[in-house]
Amino acid sequence: MKKIPFIVTSFLLLAIYVHITSCTKSGSQAYTTLYDKPLPFIQQHIDGAWKMEYEEGGNCSNCINDIFHNQNYIWEFTATNRIKQTYNDTVTTDGTFTWERDFDDWTNDSIYVMAPYDLMMYAIKNDTLIIRDALANDAGYYYLSKYKKP
Q: What's the pTM?
C-alpha cells in the first residue's frame, strides 16, 4: 500500500521535470556565427542595408561607443562585393571589396576577411549583424541592426 504514494509522487515529479525541460523561452534569441561558415552563407546573410547602433571594444575593451545610435550611419553590402556607407545621407564610402582567407589568432582558424577593410563578419544575433576588426590586437566589434529604407 505504501508503494502507491511513492509511485504517484515519482510519476508527478517526472512529469514536472519533463514539462520544465521541454519549455522554451518565449522571445529566445537566435544566434548564428558567420566567421566559421562558407563564403556563400556569409554573403547571403549580410546582403542588404544595416544601421550602425554602436561599437564595442577597440583600444578600450570594455568601452561602448554609441555616438552612432540615433544617427543615420548606414552600411550596405551587395552580392557583387560592394560596400556603401552613408552618414546622414552623405556617402562616406562607396567601393568594392574582395574576400580573402586569412588566419585569425583569436578564433585559431582560417576566416574570410573583407579586404581592404580588414573586417570579419562575426555573427548575427536576431536582427543584429556583428562585425569584428580582423587581424587587429585591439579588435573592435560593430553592432548593426537590419535597416529598412523609408
A: 0.74
